[in-house]
Amino acid sequence: MNPNDIHCENLIFSDHAINQMFKRDISVENTRMIVDFGEIIQDYPDDKPFPNCLLLGHISKRPIHLVIGVNKNECVVITANEPDPKLWDGNFKMKTKLECSLCKNGTTEKGYVTVTLEKGETIVLIKNVPAEVCTNCGHYYLSAETTQLVLDKGKEAYEKGTELEVVKLQVA
Ligand SMILES: [Zn+2]
Question: pTM of the prediction?
């Protein structure tokens, strides 16, 4: 994406960005400055539903990364982060470790999560699910095998017509 292609007349903010901004004390004005004057350091032109890019800017001396989606004249601030020096080079422009594909700012660690699935009137909470969890944003990734187990649990509860089911995943 060419920097000239970004004409963000309108900024809107995702729930995720708002929470990150609150946690890290990043204002709307700060993000506006970074969108207008920041540097594009990574580009995801094929992301859906619209192209994304990662911008680097500074608030006082703090480096800030914004992931924004560009949808015509409207830009969506998807995440706002202070990059972790352990994961980035000294200029905060190059990733030194594998990234989380959702926030593009964290790496994953093994852990356990509670998966929430919803369909119709049914809500299923599946506890004790082994996952790779992003240390930055908390999004998690499951193996194909675990995903199938989780989907099966969800389907079971949905077909029984349970409103709220809490199950503990038994993993070998
Ligand atoms: Zn993440």
Answer: 0.56
pLDDT digits (tens, 9 = 90+) for 64-77: 999 999 887 789 99
Ligand 1 midpoint to CA 103 (Å): 4
Count of CB atoms situated within 10 Å of the CB of 114: 14
Find the 159 Cα to ligand 1 centroid distance in Å. 33
Q: Distance between the two ends of the chain, CA-based, in angstroms? A: 46
- Check: CATH 1.10.760 for 3-81? no
* pLDDT tens-digit readout, 114-129: 999 999 999 999 999 9
Domain ranges of the chain: 3-81, 108-168
Place of tokens 């995943």: 169
Q: How many angstroms separate the CA atoms of 62 and 35, rounded? A: 16
Taking the centre of ligand 1 as the mean of its atom positions, its distance from the CA of residue 134, in whole angstroms, is 5
Q: Which of 23, 28, 42, 21 is nearest to 75 (CA)?
A: 28
